[in-house]
Amino acid sequence: MKTTPSPAPGPLTKGGPTAAESLDRNGSLEFSTAPLEFPINPWDIMLCMSGTVIACENAIVVAIIFYTPTLRTPMFVLIGSLATADLLAGMGLILNFVFQYVISSETISLITVGFLVASFTASISSLLAITVDRYFSLYNALTYFSEKTLQYVHLMLLGTWGVSLFLGLLPVLGWNCLDEPASCSIVRPLTRSNVTLLATSFFAIFVLMLTLYFKICKIVCHHAHQIALQQHFFATSHYVATKKGVSTLAIILGTFGASWLPFAIYCLVGEKEYPSVYTYATLLPATYNSMINPIIYAYRNAEIQRSIYMLLCGCFQANGAYRSRSPSEV
Asked: What are the recorded GO MF terms, alphabetically (predicted)?
């Protein structure tokens, strides 16, 4: 992404905009690619670096799940979907940086922003799908490991990627502000109404995830209490087990909220005239969520750890201590 010029000299927009046009687009990020006449924006460098780390992390997860036949359960299918979405988002950030400073094309600008919208939407939607899967794995524990569950997961993924692709195509199909600069949002070439739709969708997903994790927390506490009664644990053991489960849920929700909430809120209240540093400062942390996702959802899983060890060390012998975790433990 590239900032449009403020009254002082800055990165150029496409087609050599006039001073009035530059002032009109002062605060919005522009997914455009213009001849490089000024130093590269350091914020763009940080976004590119973030995209590189995201792509590398999630490429490993995708490769491990794809080449490990035992990782075909609903839980790993959803984790694979999340890793794929984050991998595409990381690649999109890298490509956006390259196209921005090398190739000047409105078509590429629209394709890039559409690609990023679709990728990040798929990432957030996959997180919601994982939350739903966790809830049903606890609520319907006896029937969770069935063929019907796998079919349900495939339907969720179909909906997730279908909606993400649709939202990503909207700017390419004409819902953009290239022909009407006054309608631009803080992220050019997205219109204000488009950004509002995306932010509202995020808040709906966040509230739904918050509700589901609250119900999951109640189930976890109830299960911990039942186990404590059956095995005659002391109250301290019950407290420790419950606290650990609640802490894990708090970390998951806290990380997601801290990453995306600032940018989603700014999408609703920000104006294109505002300094672009505000947009960068809220967007960059949002990309960190895709960087943290593989750590929370993949690298903590015992089976994925074992697959990584086997990949890095061919002489590694499978240890019987490893066991498959349920979705509620990942």
From this structure: G protein-coupled receptor activity
pTM here is 0.81
Q: Residues 164, 94, 21, CA angle at the centre, nearest 5°?
A: 85
pLDDT along the chain (330 residues), means of 10: 42 40 47 55 94 96 90 89 96 92 82 95 94 85 75 92 95 89 89 94 95 85 66 54 67 91 94 91 95 91 85 56 47
Say which amino acid occupies 142: L
* Token pair 């006054």 in the structure block, residue: 182
Burial class (CB in 10 A: 0-12, 13-18, 19+), 52: middle
Domains and CATH numbers, the chain: 42-312 (1.20.1070.10)
Q: Report the distance separating Cα 279 and Cα 302, nearest Å.
A: 38
